[in-house]
Amino acid sequence: MLSVQPDTKPKGCAGCNRKIKDRYLLKALDKYWHEDCLKCACCDCRLGEVGSTLYTKANLILCRRDYLRLFGVTGNCAACSKLIPAFEMVMRAKDNVYHLDCFACQLCNQRFCVGDKFFLKNNMILCQTDYEEGLMKEGYAPQVR
Fold it and tell me: Name one GO cellular component term.
């Protein structure tokens, strides 16, 4: 957890070991930091500017993106079966996870926008038109076009 606190008396910075004379300081991992000293070990972004959360593992202090990139759980896209990096934005339908580019009707390839209605039938993502056409067929066995 990261917190910004007004400085009441000078404290030593865990990053540079110098006294913190700034008006504000950061407290993270039960240590005090200059705003410029608390950085992600990978991308060097200032963690006080990124948000109020930081991640630690293997003696590294990391931003969310780099933590997920290095240690996050990845999975495979339900449509293309390719690996989805842990930091990538995804779409979900029940237990299935998809790349944003793969989240489309699996019969006509119509891409979905936020708020569009879609259907999951026999583990396939379908647009409303293809879903309704499939319901009209006996036994519903869609053929990929």
Answer: nucleus
| Residue-range domains of the chain with CATH | 2-70 (2.10.110.10), 75-136 (2.10.110.10)
HEC readout, the chain? CEEEEECCCCEECCCCCCEECCCEEEEECCEEECCCCCECCCCCCEHHHHCCCCEEECCEEECHHHHHHHHCCCEECCCCCCEECCCCCEEEECCEEEEHHHCECCCCCCECCCCCCCEEECCEEECHHHHHHHHHCCCCCCCCC
> Which band of pLDDT confidence, cut at 50, 70 and 90, is reported for residue 17?
very high
Other CB atoms within 10 Å distance of the CB of residue 42:
15
Both tokens assigned to 121: 């039938």
Res. 64: pLDDT tops 70: yes
- Write down the pTM of the prediction: 0.50
Among 91, 56, 57, 55, residue whose Cα is nearest residue 75: 91
Alpha carbon 109 to its chain centroid, in Å, reads 25
Distance from the Cα of residue 113 to its chain's centroid: 19
